[in-house]
From TrEMBL:
InterPro entries: AAA+_ATPase, ABC_transp_ATP-bind, ABC_transporter-like_ATP-bd, ABC_transporter-like_CS, Oligopep_ABC_C, P-loop_NTPase. This is Peptide/nickel transport system ATP-binding protein. Gene3D superfamilies: P-loop containing nucleotide triphosphate hydrolases. CDD domains: ABC_NikE_OppD_transporters.
Length: 322
């Protein structure tokens, strides 16, 4: 069966110039990242700020070309899709809906925009579909005449979600869609996305720095660290027993009282390393409590353990134990 989305060995290098006269230096934001998403599935991606999540999202959306590697959407390179056709298949939902909603348009016009652009339905059909979509995302009918500036942050995100779904995409890529919202509103939006997935049978790539959000949302998940995938597998299995020491730290941070949506203190040694000066060997070794000598010398590859659809990039995966 063709995967809905498949990315193979994505590497992305930005060229950074430090200072006006500084020499350009490479910043490797993604390093050999591969993933696949089946129809109707939610794949979660989690990792600290700067690990490459948004770079990955932009490349998967076809908004940026990778330095190397391929992205296949329904078996066809995403770069080969005419822009409109791609937009019919994949839609984004970003962290800040305000930035992507034209402030001078009404909510109704904003939600209907994709139908308009793709010439879907007659005028009255478009109005009907827009109203149904607004109902499904929990926007009151009176909100249809409002401008984005008159809405709350949560309502604006509902508009962005309605617009993403109205033309029936097969995949929605959500990059931290609730991080800017109050905690109580976050939960409503997350549950709304789960309801919509069930209703529309749409697949999602769901990005968050918050592992508990990923636990709630994702069927399968991927943990990223410094542009690399360090662990991937079914969400439940990873939560029950993480194999990578970094995943263990992220999971344990979930259980510490930290509900304000901020980045939890992971209690790791050292700081998040500079992406322009990555550690040798395993890039996580300076912060790892289990590092041995060879961890600073040899980079571990992503390897499957036990054939249960899980993989981990660690010389000493935490697979044994009680
Ligand atoms: N346009 C750009 N030009 C240069 N460097 C960039 C650019 N975009 C991202 N980077 C760098 O690439 C790395 C990955 O950034 P990215 O935004 O993908 O991370 P992220 O995981 O989405 O972080 P956050 O959780 O803060 O959103 C970072 O070191 C970042 O500074
Ligand atoms: Mg980001």
């Amino acid at each position: 069966m063709t995967m809905l989305l498949e990315a193979r060995d994505l590497t992305h290098v930005y060229t950074i110039r430090q200072g006006l006269l500084g020499r350009p230096a490479p910043l490797r934001a993604l390093n050999n990242v591969s993933l696949s998403i089946k129809r109707g599935e939610i794949l979660g991606i989690v990792g600290e700020s700067g690990c490459g999540k948004s770079t990955l999202a932009r490349i998967l959306l076809g908004l940026e070309a990778p330095t190397s590697g391929t992205v296949l959407l329904e078996g066809r390179p995403v770069g080969d899709y005419p822009r409109r056709e791609r937009a019919l298949a994949v839609q984004p939902v970003f962290q800040d809906p305000y930035g992507s909603l034209n402030p001078s348009m009404s909510v109704e016009e904003l939600i209907a925009l994709p139908l308009h652009v793709h010439g879907i339905g007659s005028r009255s059909e478009r109005r009907r579909r827009t109203a149904t979509m607004a109902d499904q995302v929990g926007l009151p009918r009176r909100a249809l005449a409002a401008r984005p500036g008159e809405l709350s942050g949560g309502q604006r995100q509902r508009v962005a979600i309605a617009r993403a779904l109205v033309a029936g995409p097969r995949l929605v890529i959500c990059d931290e869609p609730t991080s800017a919202l109050d905690v109580s509103v976050q939960a409503q939006i997350l549950n709304l996305l789960l309801d919509l997935r069930a209703e529309h049978d749409v697949a999602m790539l769901f990005i968050s720095h918050n592992l508990s959000v990923i636990e709630h949302m994702a069927d399968r998940m991927m943990v990223m660290y410094l542009g690399r995938v360090v662990e991937t597998g079914p969400t439940r299995a990873i939560f029950a027993r993480p194999h990578h020491p970094y995943t263990t730290v992220l999971r344990d941070a979930v259980f510490s009282p930290q509900d304000d949506g901020g980045v939890p203190d992971l209690g790791l040694r050292g700081n998040f390393p500079n992406a322009m000066d990555v550690p040798s060997g395993c890039v996580f070794h300076p912060r790892c409590g289990f590092a041995h000598q060879n961890c600073s010398e040899v980079e571990p590859m992503l390897k499957t353990h036990g054939g249960d659809d899980r993989a981990c990039a660690c010389h000493y995966p935490l697979t044994a134990g009680p």
